[in-house]
Specification:
The protein is an alpha+beta fold. The protein contains 22 helices and 19 strands. α12 (378-391) packs antiparallel against α13 (416-432) and α18 (524-533) crosses α21.
Length: 606
């Protein structure tokens, strides 16, 4: 596992992880662990100031030297293309700037009289012997689409998450966290800004990579990255687009769009037929340990199979994915309440009617939800959510998800203890949440969504590292996020419009037929088939660690799995979190702990 971290007083860390490498030879309290390429660890120092940029970053040697000489500016997280974290050490103070999506999440824990920080929560859990945080786990199981409930928490007890776009300052007195980034509405062409930043994000991945591969699903996001990579590749630097498809089905749907895009000069197209061995819910016992349940855990057989295939057949050293594109570019429905709250009633009605037609819902409940959301505080919404979580009596409403919380039912397998834990975090969030100014509802929701996507995608990156592949998600890069979330409300498309900014940004690169596409491929049949094929193993999982912890009623979960596999109208959101969490708990329990060694007398090593 690749990670980095340090101690608040870097000159005298009480403990350090086994097998670590110092960032600077004379500073023992900042390190990396695992295998890193040279361009991923960039360091500079001048006098008593030491600076490191970790991850993929477009900073030049001269700019890095300037940071060492003059200090790190507080906009460093979105100053250069790429996905990176910046660390500055001055005498007895360490400062760490987090990126805007937590693509490199930074965690902290208190031990040995000071603050340890790291990009891996599992590494810090190894330091302190921390157990999985059951409050967070229960809340993630019951309300996975409300990330504000989990703000500041990791998957482990007493291991905290530094929010994205913030600066952590740690010294002998403790740690302080300050916010550095807020969305800044800017004029100008959103499409031009998006094209510029996506191109730069793709180009920085090409630097230092010999064999770049990319998902080429036939959708907007991965296709955009593959085409931008091909346009910017150096002579003799191949870009391989990889399209997965059901075995025996060589045309139709996503595959046709992928083939159109693959005609672009510079793309070598490879097809990977999916068979029964790649089905969702297969090979769950092989999922390795990660910092939290991985988004691709359910589809691990396909995910790991694809990565191993491209490593063996292409020799990839960088694989691009479109993860994060939907969360960033699909306008949240709460934008309709933004329009009402800012007095744009005519457009609010028009966009709500379009949304109702797209979702095939009656318009009046959506119009009522838009008006209600515009007039209801976020604290009140979270308090209502807390009540529904505790009672388990939530009701799905035909409101088109126009609100701060998606109206999803509490799973029938949730125990009273799980509901109480989730309700307590919802009450806590209600008491502490900041109210959002009118006109920034959608931007705030998108920023929180990107923070969830970026941080959880780190677990997928850890899965990919286990398969021997370096994964890159340019849509979670800070400059890409900052560019798109700077679009003012008046210029933001409605929720019924499918990524018009990306279509415009890729004008001249997207095939004409793809540019007007308004749908995505449907993988639900694959999930139903995989669940049916693996139902006995899933029934066994239902009686596992979650049940032993008192968070899941095993009989109720088993019934829910059976009914879902039979094709009854039960949302996958009521079963997939439970399966992913159970797989994660088992993998964590079976994996060796990250070990630490005492570097000062009197300190007990872990």
């Amino acid at each position: 596992m690749r990670w980095f971290g340090g101690f608040g007083v870097p000159a005298a860390p009480p403990r350090s992880p086994d097998g670590h490498v110092r960032l600077w030879p004379t500073v023992p309290g900042c390190w990396t662990s695992g295998s890193w390429a040279g361009h991923e660890v960039r360091t500079s120092w001048h006098g008593t100031r030491f600076v490191a940029v970790l991850g993929t970053c477009g900073i030049t040697h001269a700019e890095l030297a300037r940071l060492g000489a003059d200090g790190v500016p507080d906009d460093v997280a979105w100053r250069w293309p790429g996905s990176y974290t910046t660390v500055e050490v001055t005498r007895a103070v360490t400062s760490v700037w987090t990126d805007l999506s937590s693509a490199w999440p930074i965690y902290t824990t208190t031990a040995d009289g000071g603050t340890y920080w790291a990009s891996s929560s599992r590494a810090l859990a190894g330091l302190t012997g921390a157990r999985p945080d059951l409050d967070r786990l229960a809340t993630w199981l019951l309300a996975p689409s409300v990330p504000v409930l989990l703000a500041g928490r990791s998957a482990f007890e007493d291991v905290a998450l530094v929010p994205p776009g913030h600066r952590l300052t740690a010294d002998a007195e403790g740690a302080r966290i300050d916010r550095m980034w807020r969305p800044r509405p800017r004029t100008g062409s959103p499409a031009r800004r998006l094209r510029t930043e996506l191109a730069a994000a793709t180009a920085v991945r090409l630097h230092g990579a010999a064999a770049v591969t990319s998902d080429l699903s036939g959708g907007f996001d991965s296709t955009a990255l593959a085409l931008l990579a091909a346009d910017q590749a150096a002579p003799g630097q191949p870009i391989t687009g990889v399209t997965v498809h059901p075995a025996g089905r060589d045309s139709g749907g996503d595959l046709d769009y992928a083939r159109l895009a693959a005609r672009h000069s510079g793309i070598e197209h490879r097809l990977l037929p999916l068979t029964g061995e790649h089905a969702p819910y297969s090979r769950l016992g092989e999922v390795p340990a990660t910092d939290e349940p991985a988004p691709s855990a359910i589809a691990y057989a396909r995910f790991a199979g694809q990565l191993r295939w491209i490593r063996e057949t292409v020799g990839t050293d960088c694989h691009l994915t479109g993860d994060g594109g939907d969360s960033l570019l699909c306008t949240p429905p709460i934008m309709l309440a933004d329009l009402v709250a800012t007095g744009h009633h005519g457009r609010a009605v028009a966009e709500t009617m379009r949304w109702a037609r797209l979702r095939r819902l009656p318009a009046w409940p959506l119009l009522a939800a838009t008006r209600r959301t515009a007039r209801t505080s976020r604290a009140d919404v979270l308090a209502e959510l807390a009540t529904s979580l505790r009672t388990g009596e939530s009701v799905t409403k035909p409101d088109g998800h126009i609100g701060w919380c998606a109206t999803e039912p509490v799973p029938p397998w949730a125990t009273a203890d799980a509901r109480d834990r989730a309700a307590a975090l919802a009450h806590q969030a209600s008491a502490g949440v900041a109210e959002v100014p009118a006109g920034l509802f959608a931007t705030t929701a998108a920023a929180e969504g990107m923070a969830e996507v970026g941080r959880s995608a780190r677990a997928d990156i850890q899965l990919a590292e286990h398969a021997g592949v370096q994964l890159a998600n340019p849509f979670t890069d800070s400059r890409v996020i900052d560019a798109y979330l700077s679009v003012p409300l008046a210029e933001r498309p409605g929720p019924a419009s499918y990524k018009p900014a990306l279509a415009a940004a890729m004008d001249g690169l997207f095939p004409a037929k793809l540019a007007v596409r308004t749908t995505k491929g449907d993988f639900n049949p694959d999930h139903y088939g995989g669940m049916r094929a693996n139902l006995p193993a899933l029934h066994t999982l239902s009686e596992g660690r979650l049940a032993a912890l008192g968070l899941v009623d095993p009989a109720a979960l088993r019934r829910t799995l059976t009914m879902t596999a039979a094709g009854l109208p039960i949302p996958f959101s009521t079963v997939e979190p439970a399966v992913a969490a159970e797989v994660w708990l088992r993998a964590y329990a079976d994996a060796p702990r990250v070990t630490w060694t005492a570097t000062r007398p009197g300190v007990v090593a872990a």
